[in-house]
Design a protein that fits this description.
This protein has 74 residues and is mainly β. 9% of the residues lie in helices and 32% in strands. The protein is globular, with a radius of gyration of 14 Å.
């Protein structure tokens, strides 16, 4: 019997495969990881995104994300 995949998208976040519900956008992903948009730099499929661009990105099957926390210090 063939296996069925639940509706969702496969993405890679910081090198790890993850399955997310269809329609997940970047702010929802960040919130699920306990991250605030203002505290991370997001690279989506090789392109760094501005904070103002995050809300408009709905994740699709095969997307690659790198999330880097911004840390202040001296």
């Amino acid at each position: 019997m063939p296996s069925r995949r639940l509706a969702g998208v496969q993405v890679t976040v910081n090198g790890r495969a993850s399955e997310l519900p269809d329609g997940t956008d970047l702010p929802a992903l960040l919130a699920s990881l306990g991250l605030r948009a203002g505290s991370v730099v997001v690279e989506h499929n090789g392109s760094a995104l501005l904070r103002s661009e995050l809300a408009g990105v709905v994740l699709r099957d095969g997307d690659r994300l790198e999330l880097v926390r911004a840390v202040a210090g001296g």
